[in-house]
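pasting for ref
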Amino acid sequence: MRQNARNSTKPAAATAGTAASAPLPSGSVLSQHGELITELIDLAVAAGPKPDSRVPELAGLIKVLGEEIRQRVTSGCAELENVGAGLDSVLTLADMQSERSEDAYGMYCLLKLLKQQLDKATGQLRQVL
């Protein structure tokens, strides 16, 4: 997403001249996507058999935002999985030290819980895809 001004956010593809040039709602990409879908449905229902001229434009913006959401979630999951792999290495070291030290065992237990939470959150994000 490209930040043009403090409160003006457009998806990179829309600013590059694809889909449409209509202003997007402010907020997160996911909320923009939902707002555009709602607006598209309202326009389609109100127009009846003759579609409003903005319907194709909104449909294009929805497609662009949907792809941006998918790319961001995919990228975020990959980064979280990299963090998880690093945490696995730290867990292995803490496990080896836990046999010698009570403090190391406490650290191992805490890190193990954090790793489980990270894995659960990553799995939930993957389900969005």
